[in-house]
Amino acid sequence: MARLARIVVPGLPHHVTQRGNRRAKVFFTPEDYALYKTLLAEHCRAANVGIWAWCLMPNHVHLILTPADPGGLRRALAKVHRELR
User: Fold this and answer.
1) Three-class secondary structure of residue 81 per DSSP
2) What is the pTM of this model?
3) Which residues contact 82 (CB under 8 A, 6 or more apart)?
4) Which residue, 31, 60, 76, 83, could crosslink 43 as a Cys pair with Cβ 3.0–4.6 Å?
5) Residues near 47 by Cβ (< 8 Å), separated by ≥ 6?
6) Any idea where the Transposase IS200-like domain is (predicted)?
7) Domain ranges of the chain
8) Closest CA to 12 of 41, 60, 47, 49
9) What residue spans of the chain are helical by DSSP H?
C-alpha cells in the first residue's frame, strides 16, 4: 500500500516522530542528545520552523514544530538527520 502524502499546514503545530531502524538506539551518550538539540535549533532557525517541544528517547524522538511554509519541516529535519549520522 502506498504511503499517504504528508499534509503540512504553515503556522500550525505538527507532531513529528523519528525512530531508529528496527527501533534501534539512536542516542548512546549525553553528547548525542546535546548534538541533536543543537542541530535541531540551528536548522529549524534557518528554515523558519518554530520549536514548541521535544522529547528525546534512546531510540526515537517526538517533536512539536510549527513551520512558516510548507517545505520548512522537510528542509530542517532532513539536514538534522543527515548531520546526526
Assistant:
1) helix
2) 0.88
3) none
4) 76
5) 67, 71, 72, 73, 75, 76, 79
6) 9-84
7) 14-84
8) 49
9) 30-46, 72-84
CATH architecture of the domain with residue range 14-84: 2-Layer Sandwich (3.30)
* Amino acid letter for position 69: D
Query: How many CA atoms lie within 13 Å of 34's alpha carbon, on the beta-carbon side?
Result: 3
| Residue 62 identity (one-letter amino acid) | H
At 69, is the secondary structure helix, strand, or coil?
A: coil
Q: How far apart are CA 23 and CA 78, in angstroms?
A: 19
43 CB burial (10 A radius; 0-12, 13-18, 19+): buried
* Spatial contact of 44 and 50, defined as CB atoms under 8 Å apart: yes
C-alpha cell at 82: 543527515
